[in-house]
# Entry
Amino acid sequence: MSLIVFDNSYARDLPQHAVPWQPATPPQPQLLYWNAALAAELGLDSADVAAETLAAQFSGALLPDGAQPIAQAYAGHQFGGYSPTLGDGRALLLGEVIDRRGQRRDLAFKGSGRTPFSRRGDGKAAVGPMLRELIIGEAMQALAIPTTRALAVVATGETVSRERPLPGAVLTRVAASHLRVGTFEYFANGEDEDALRQLADYAIRRHDPALLDAANPYLAFLDAVCRRQARLIAQWMHAGFIHGVMNTDNMTISGETIDYGPCAFMDAYDPATVFSSIDERGRYAYGNQPAIAQWNLARLAETLLPLLDAESQQQAVAQATEVIHHFVDDYREQWLAQARRKLGLLTAQDDDQQLADDWLALLQAQQADFTLAWRYLADAVDGDGSRLAAQFADPAALSPWLARWQQRLAAEPQAAAERASAMRALNPLYIARNHLVEEALAAASEHGDMSLTLRLLAVLADPFTERGGLARYTLPAAPELVAGYRTFCGT
# Structure
């Protein structure tokens, strides 16, 4: 039975950009999770497919008909240093499907074994990190933040060696594409202009077909990627999300969040927050993310210079520089627009940026929980600020800012009840709290118990609606758990 209808444009159109490869065969595949809703979105009718069949097809034991697995080539700047050959060291692109909306989507394995790009790695993945990618991806999806998603997680029945032996797993990731800034770096630094142009043309056809008729399609493409990333990073910042490894090989051309390794959500607001065990100098701290995004995009711009103006490198540099500089304005515009909505503002006034900045400064000074402070602003609109005040070490410190905000709201046309409802639809109550994620991963990895993962996924599927019996899912971790908390990349 053919569950998937593939149309593999990357393998067909860009054969020199990847290496055909086969996944390792897992000894005892067992389906841990199947994303039925995502499968339906992709047009995959899995209702009558046995779990054993799904486990086989989405672990590498028995590839779906039509799959053409390839390891994609890419480079990347990792913590600022250039690595010329990275590529899919533990991943394989199975192929592409056209979903029910007519959109092309990648299906790719993660953790499926060694490839020509593996270097010294084993190419495998463990249950815990693959479930983390599932949980965070679904949380981001529910928050309406562009993201790759997990279609399936399959235990392989083998052990992988990390700091200690761990149960192995393969994840099937769905993405608008796996084209990265690092993909362009690989071919630009190889000085193969024909391959670079072919890649850029493919990316434009796939993600920005309307730009094919632009006066300078490559410049317009760079601008479109920058605008997507400006919006994405603004969304990350408003969710308190910290990616952890913003290398150029982890920045997509599509504007989707990719690679949930040492990522986490912030509890108490602090721009210097770092969770990643490998980010020793804080390069990818929460507050640095907008600047790092611009730095990464500048690397993309450099790759496109030969295509921007074949006659004048000086002119190409000037054009690219203007686009990269404009990223700052795009990001600030996106951030402020989202901040206004989260604050219950429908109109714009000149001092709104200062109002929002002072709110964040207050949260930091008072060590307030980022998510709950934003959420409980709606309570104050309803006339009850008790839950909001409880987030502050000194509730009296809130009063001056609250008075300014309420005065600003008085200039708005919206009724209070309507405003509070709109704010609650934008400011989540339930996020993937780090201690809850760790609790779920430990139960699954150490005891084979998926119940906590499934329960957490059910809560996160509706992050905005307050429900009874879920109080523990709203609370930050105890201070002793937050101190020294670190996340790991899983390789």
Q: What stands out?
A: Residues 313-342 form the longest helix (30 residues). The CA atoms of residues 34 and 152 lie 5 Å apart.
